[in-house]
Amino acid sequence: MKRIGIVGLPNAGKSSLFRALSRQAAEVAPYPFTTVEPNVAVVPIPDPRLDQVARVLNASPVVYETIELRDIAGLVRGAHRGEGLGNRFLAQIREVDAVVVVVRAFSAPDVPHPDGRVDPVADAELLETELLFADLERVEERLERARRRARSLERAAVAERDWLEALKARLERGQPARGLEPPEDAPQAARELGAITAKPFLYVANVDEGSALEPPAELVAHVARRGAHAIAVSARLEAELAELEPAEAEAMRRDLGFSEGVLERVVGAAFRLLGLVVFFTAHEGAEARAHAVPAGTVARRAAREVHSDMERGFVAAEVVAWNDLVAAGSLQAARERALLRTEGRDYLVRDGDVLRFRFTP
Ligand code: GDP
């Protein structure tokens, strides 16, 4: 299961957001979602495409893909030197697949800001500096070894050294590792380094309740220069909504003009940054389920996500794009219109495919 880490300066609204997300998780899905530890929760990723597929095929229950969410405290000035909970913080953030950065954009004079001002871009820069320094330290450590090994002129060693040199220069310019491709001749180098700033980042501007759900323009511009994305939430409002009965919360959301719940907006957006492909399986009277696999997964390998027997005895996959199926109104109609195809073991699964595997048990 993939992991998302929520980070931010103290009082940015991380815990409020984490609470809202984990409570909404319990509303969205008909099966229990647990808070594993006080700051770790497994949450579903609501997917309206799967809802529609389930309706057309009379499948139930609807089982979304899940992701682990971690509220990671300890990002303060000096964290990269181990200040505050710095070391623990860095160890935790290295383990996640995507990072949600909460920056304060709400005013609330009763909530102190560590630097006594509200400035989302300055906060983003402070956070990035800490993470860039943490990466830079690692790069320098590895670079020493890589330089020694590259003296052998062995191809992978040279490629790794050159890549680390380029990365060092990039981080020193204040740019994230994201965007620098891993070296072709040393494909393991990037994984071994585990740079924090190479991970996908979603910036969440925590805005005043009642204001438009849009991140401040200067933050959007800043984030675009980093190759990342920004959205807005009001964490306090979402935490309050999550306290209400589901029906009441739903009505409130409608009144507020929120078309999606906070889980879809935040977790859905962060999940999409992981570049996974989601396919669906669904059968009348049985469950409809979403499965996330890496882009480039072939049909036979995808079958393993459903059952290992299906991979072993794989014969073929029947495939229809979710929107084609919904437009056709039934599998039969999709087949008649030639929207449902039979594909072999090496078919590259696409995002939004509805798959049925034929296999010999
Ligand atoms: P953390 O330190 O980042 O985990 O921040 P918390 O979620 O604990 O929030 C710190 C304080 O800010 C709490 O008193 C929250 O109620 C308040 N807060 C968080 N989000 C908002 C918001 O969107 N608007 C307002 N007015 N207050 C907020």
Automatic annotation (TrEMBL):
Keywords: ATP-binding, Coiled coil, Magnesium, Metal-binding, Nucleotide-binding. It comes from the Bacteria. Residues 2-253 form the OBG-type G domain. Its cofactor is Mg(2+). GO terms for molecular function: ATP binding; ATP hydrolysis activity; GTP binding; metal ion binding. One of its GO terms (cellular component) is cytoplasm. Pfam families: MMR_HSR1, YchF-GTPase_C. InterPro entries: ATPase_YchF/OLA1, Beta-grasp_dom_sf, G_OBG, GTP-bd, P-loop_NTPase, TGS-like, TGS-like_dom_sf, YchF_C. PROSITE patterns: G_OBG. Residues 129-156 form a coiled coil. PANTHER family: OBG GTPASE FAMILY, OBG-TYPE G DOMAIN-CONTAINING PROTEIN. This is OBG-type G domain-containing protein. It comes from Thermoleophilum album. The lineage of its organism: Bacteria, Bacillati, Actinomycetota, Thermoleophilia, Thermoleophilales.
